[in-house]
Amino acid sequence: MKLFTTTFLLIAASFMVQAQDFTDYQWESRILLLVDPIPESAAMRAQLVAFLETPEEMKERDLLLFRVTADNVLDKNGKPTGVSRHSVYKDYALSKQFQGILLIGKDGGVKLKENFFVKPSIIFSLIDGMPMRRAEMRSKKG
Question: I want to staple 36 with a disulfide (CB 3.0 to 4.6 A). Which of 44, 71, 106, 140 is the partner?
Answer without folding.
Answer: 44
